[in-house]
Backbone:
């Protein structure tokens, strides 16, 4: 396997951070690593890239042990962290030329320009990086990660700051790298739309442990049970008291509430009960069967168990 992690555990001082992470991906896979804030995603990535040592468990990346072979690993892995550091006074093309020299590469300016064009920055090669928007810096960070033609890309929130067209362009680039060049891509993100479009495998973490791991299509195909709805409500009393028995409040975002209904529940009766309890139903959206429902249900159950 390109990446294989079994029962990864890690503590920082007396605090357990990772408590049993599983992860497996092959060349050409696009793997989505998901989980709430604090679930252990970034720590897992730091172990895989050799920045932290695992406490216990087995970790193999490209057949190497990141803890003891980090230098060799970095020559074969491209990394885009969430907060990539740049030299703001450098022009984009000079920055990539400098970074390529750190890999021992002597790239011609034509190759540098081609790399910038690849990520949608061909018109900005002569601009100082300090004047770049967040989305432009994300593009530059991806160009940097691709300089040495890595076998594995580790990307932390790669589409942050990009507009819809920019996200689509980066999606298309990642799909091309995966399907036509066999590059494995490990994607850490909160954007489930990105995962839905890009990933063929996922792993979901909660409180430092793997909740589920495997083929995205297979996991969603086994999805049964509750239907999930997003409701826009107006009222001034506790919603939990108005919900019929068996209906669970999953999450709330201002006027929006996410509820899960049992498999045989009649949604009309649930809405009638809410109206009778004094709630105004402004909007109702059925979200059953998708990745968002799957993710929220799993992480909610783990965090409340």
Residues:
């Amino acid at each position: 396997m390109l990446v294989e992690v079994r029962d990864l555990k890690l503590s920082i001082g007396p605090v357990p951070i990772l408590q049993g992470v599983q992860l497996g991906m092959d060349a050409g896979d696009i793997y989505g690593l998901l989980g709430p804030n604090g679930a252990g995603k970034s720590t897992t990535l730091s172990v895989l890239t050799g920045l932290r040592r695992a406490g216990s468990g087995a970790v193999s990346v490209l057949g190497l042990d990141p803890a003891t072979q980090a230098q060799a690993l970095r020559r074969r892995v491209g990394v885009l962290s969430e907060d990539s550091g740049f030299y703001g006074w450098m022009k984009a093309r000079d920055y990539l030329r400098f970074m390529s020299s750190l890999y021992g590469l002597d790239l011609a300016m034509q190759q540098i320009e081609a790399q910038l064009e690849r990520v949608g920055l061909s018109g900005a090669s002569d601009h100082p990086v300090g004047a770049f928007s967040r989305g432009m810096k994300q593009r530059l960070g991806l160009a940097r990660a691709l300089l040495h033609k890595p076998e594995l890309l580790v990307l932390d929130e790669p589409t942050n700051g990009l507009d819809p067209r920019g996200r689509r362009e980066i999606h298309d680039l990642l799909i091309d790298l995966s399907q036509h060049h066999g590059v494995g891509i490990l994607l850490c993100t909160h954007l489930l739309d990105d995962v839905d479009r890009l990933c063929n495998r996922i792993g979901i973490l909660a409180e430092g442990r793997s909740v589920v791991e495997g083929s995205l299509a297979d996991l969603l195909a086994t999805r049964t049970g509750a239907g999930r709805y997003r409701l826009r409500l107006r009222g001034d009393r506790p919603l939990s008291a108005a919900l019929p028995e068996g209906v669970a409040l999953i999450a709330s975002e201002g006027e929006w509430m996410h509820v899960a209904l049992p498999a045989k529940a009649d949604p009309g009766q649930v809405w009638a009960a809410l109206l009778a309890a004094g709630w105004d139903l402004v909007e109702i959206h059925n979200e059953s069967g998708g990745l968002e429902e799957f993710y929220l249900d799993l992480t909610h159950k783990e965090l409340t168990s």
Q: What stands out?
A: DSSP finds eleven helices and 13 strands in the chain. The CA atoms of residues 213 and 219 lie 8 Å apart. The longest strand covers residues 15-25.
